[in-house]
Amino acid sequence: MQVIPAIDLQGGKCVRLLRGERNKQTVYSLNPVEVALSWQSQGARLLHVVDLDGAFEGIPLNSSVIAQIASAVDIPVQLGGGIRDKFTVENAFKLGVEKVILGTVAAEKPELVKELTALYGEKIVVGIDAREGIVAVRGWVKGTGKRAVELALEMQQYGVKEIIYTDIFRDGTLEGPNIEALSFMARSLEIPLIAAGGISSLRDLHDVKELEPLGVTGVIVGQALYSGRFTLRDAITECGE
């Protein structure tokens, strides 16, 4: 199972938010490129980059930093946050990222996801963020009333090859992942699932890895790495990469 370190960008800085709340920010670095190179040097095979300003405002606002990260590292970068139309997807690829994560548009414009998946194949990933199993969009501030598993199955039907599932109540909390929700989602799908939110210890990683036979192929880790709960090398060893 792959361990994917997260780099969340706000105002050009590397930050973490508590449960995605804009005003609950901790700044971890003023130089996200250095952070990206550090994760690469510790064994990361993929970076998960989120433009938080883009997620809240609906348009990418950290493109310069994202391009610098993609240019500096030799490993693939996947990007999410504020990518809500075809033009922005095309621009994201021009920045040098390998994969684009679609969140809000998956719930609000599913036909666009279908079109983009037909164009770009596995380079399109859908991010589903949920509170108590219900999808939230637009920087997690707006509820949709739609069940996460319903949206995931719809995206699978539209040709999406991979889904990232984030439990918003766990994100940035270090309270442990929602294993029950992850298990239910993984059992419902035939495509790979990436887990995100709440990882606090190597034991948590072990618990998520137990879901690998169900199709959980990766786990995104942020706060636990930045706060020194464990090293990326130890996480990679625990997950058997």
Q: What do these coordinates show?
A:
The protein has helices at residues 32-41, 52-57, 63-72, 86-94, 104-108, 110-120, 148-157, 179-188, 202-209, 223-226, 232-239; strands at 2-10, 13-17, 25-29, 47-51, 77-80, 99-102, 124-131, 134-137, 142-147, 163-167, 193-196, 216-221. With 241 residues, the protein is of the alpha/beta class. It has a single domain (2-239), classed as Alpha-Beta Barrel (TIM Barrel). Strands 1-4-5-6-7-10-11-12 form an eight-stranded parallel β-barrel, surrounded by eight helices. Strand 8 (134-137) and strand 9 (142-147) form a beta hairpin. Helix 9 packs parallel to helix 11. The longest helix is centred in the middle third of the chain and has 11 residues, at 110-120. The mean pLDDT is 91.
Brief summary:
The chain has 241 residues and is α/β, with parallel strands linked by helices.
Give a quick set of tags describing it:
241 residues; single chain; eight-stranded parallel barrel; TIM Barrel; 12 strands; alpha/beta; 11 helices
Q: Tell me the number of strands.
A: 12
What best-fitting shape do the alpha-carbon axes yield? globular
Share of helical residues = 25-40%
SSE run: EEEHEHHEHEHHEEEHEHEHEHH
Distance between the termini: 6 Å
Structural class: alpha/beta
Instruction: Name the CATH superfamily classification.
Output: Aldolase class I
Q: What is the name of the CATH topology?
A: TIM Barrel
β-strand amount: 25-35%
Strand order of the largest sheet: 1-4-5-6-7-10-11-12
Give the count of structural domains: 1
The overall pLDDT, averaged over residues, is 91
Radius of gyration: 16 Å
**Low-confidence stretches at least 5 residues in length (pLDDT < 50)?**
none
CATH architecture tag: Alpha-Beta Barrel
What's the CATH class label?
A: Alpha Beta
Total helices: the number is 11
Largest sheet: 8 strands, parallel, barrel
